[in-house]
Amino acid sequence: MRPSDCRPALRELASNVADQREHGTTGEVPIERFRRAEARALRPIAGAPPFAMAFELVRKVQPDCVIGVDGNAYSVRWRLIGESVRVVISGDQLRISHAGREVAVHRRRTGRFQYCRPAPLRRRRRLRPAGACPDCACFGHCLPTSAAAPAARI
Known about the structure:
This protein is of the alpha+beta class. Among the domains are: 3-39, no CATH class; 54-115, no CATH class. The chain has 2 helices and 9 strands. It has helices spanning 3-18, 30-38, and strands at 54-60, 66-69, 72-75, 84-90, 93-98, 101-107, 115-116, 127-129, 151-153. Strand 2 (66-69) and strand 3 form a beta hairpin. The longest helix has 16 residues, at 3-18. The chain starts with a helix and ends with a strand.
């Protein structure tokens, strides 16, 4: 039996039985108490922004300039080696901040053992695999080795 099969029976049980009998602790009928004391406190949610699901973590930057999240490595600047950084995961984005300043944004990787690092700042010409991640400019380092395509000049 699936949970969806039980919903009608549970809804009927809650409205016709549980809400109608006297509560053992309060000594009141729950639906009457709700209508008298609690219903006025509720407000409509129309126009309210939806709840944003986000996870917040703290990670230490490793000597190779990366932090580990879910088995994947995400790069940060070398100046932060040994420092603790705040990581916020929301949807498919991973935001890294230090001392209240955002220091890196990466696309969250699916799978494990993937490495994502930004493009080097000083080199202008670089080989870039076709299909490399455009949002974090990782030059294909986030792609699994088997998925790396032949390099093309940019």
